Amino acid sequence: MNETRGFVLMCKSYRNDLESFRRLFGSVEKHNVDSIRMYVSVPEDDLQIFQEFVNMTVTVISDESYAWKYLSTESYWGLPVGYINQEICKLAFWETGVCKNYLSVDSDSYFIRDFHENDFMMDDKTPYSVLVMDKDLNIERHYKEFGKWRMNLIKKIFDYVGYHDRRFLTCHSTTVLNCAVLEDMKKCLLDEGGIGYKDLIEISPYEYSWYNVWLQKSGVIPVVAVEPFFKMFHMRIEYIFSKVKLITEEDLAEQYVGIVLNSNWKPKKPPKIYGRISWLERAINKFIERL
Fold it and tell me: Is 103 helix (H, G, I), strand (E, B) or coil?
């Protein structure tokens, strides 16, 4: 891992996500027309399981090889230790020295069209940064309560960092992380404050928001804001409504490079509908059951 590239793909995975990762890997093989290097980070115990994916553009490394001193043995916010550590790995990956920018993509994502480095980078040095307010998402009934909880935790990050912007711009997933920004965050926020990555997650479990707030506050690189690269379906009902509207992957590919299907779904059960059930909601529930 001696070569420093301008831009790479980084996926944090583990054995329980193997089948999801297999779909992501297949989509990368199909659509990675620029042969962008991909690094897959897994626990040391899972290295052998992921060896089947190693090729000319895919490298598998262990979490411990670069993040061993940061990994947590404690759970925060009711999240499993493994979930906490995957957030830490995403923030610490810059310390491998393999790149200057990396697109952090999860196993429950996949590409739906050919992609190029310039889909994610404005120029050789400056990444596009996914920064949104989520207005449309936050008015959805199925998301609203969780959205309020999430926003309170994002505000804690803004307060802790000391950056004040009433837009609270950030993202959910699949954004480009710049190594110079992360290095500056570690030096000025973590090292000077005498804390580690797991302390950040204990304060608020949103790794991308820690990065995004520091990006906006620090001025280390120009902030070039864009809407999400991937269409994220946070809950199964969102996916079903897109089908009801006859939206296809081809339609999505006109605006997005990929799709995120939240791995917390329970695929064979219809989602719980809150409040009064209308005839349309009942019809959709029956439709979901047949999928």
Answer: strand
